[in-house]
């Protein structure tokens, strides 16, 4: 189980770093606004940190779903057919 989680968390961590570099190469954190138009009143490092954890969580969910869907079906299971 531990190896399974690490096979999800580590690639997700690396990809979150890559996506963050790509996104913030094009977006200035000081130019961000909330949905109602109010400026985001966070420091640049806070925006970078929150975005990294958001990206990491998104990749972890995608990796966990992929691992769940790629699991072979259980043998000897009675489906009632």
Shape summary: elongated
Number of strands: 0
Mean pLDDT: 87
Sheet bearing the most strands, described?
Answer: none
- How much helicity do the residues have? 55-70%
Note the total helix count: 2
- Rg over CA atoms, rounded to whole Å, is 19 Å
What fraction strand? under 5%
- Distance N terminus to C terminus? 31 Å
Which ranges are low-confidence, i.e. pLDDT below 50, for 5 or more consecutive residues? none
Any overview of this molecule?
With 81 residues, the chain is an all-alpha fold. The protein has a domain at 17-22 and 38-68. Helices cover 64% and strands 0% of the residues. It has helices at residues 2-26, 44-70. Helix 1 (2-26) packs across helix 2 (44-70). The longest helix has 27 residues, at 44-70. It is elongated and about 60 Å long. The chain starts with a helix and ends in an 11-residue tail after the last helix. The relative contact order is 0.16. The model has no long low-confidence stretch (mean pLDDT 87).
Ordered list of secondary-structure elements with their pairings:
Layout: H1 2-26, H2 44-70
Helix pairs in contact: 1-2
Features:
single chain, 81 residues, mainly alpha, elongated
Gist of the model:
Helix content is 64%, strand content 0%.
């Amino acid at each position: 189980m531990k190896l399974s989680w690490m096979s999800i968390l580590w690639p997700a961590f690396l990809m979150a770093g890559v996506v963050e570099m790509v996104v913030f190469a094009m977006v200035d954190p000081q130019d961000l606004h909330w949905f109602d138009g109010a400026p985001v009143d966070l420091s640049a490092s806070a925006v970078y940190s929150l975005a990294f954890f958001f990206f990491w969580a998104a990749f972890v969910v995608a990796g966990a779903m992929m691992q769940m869907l790629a699991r072979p079906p259980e043998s000897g299971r009675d489906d009632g057919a």
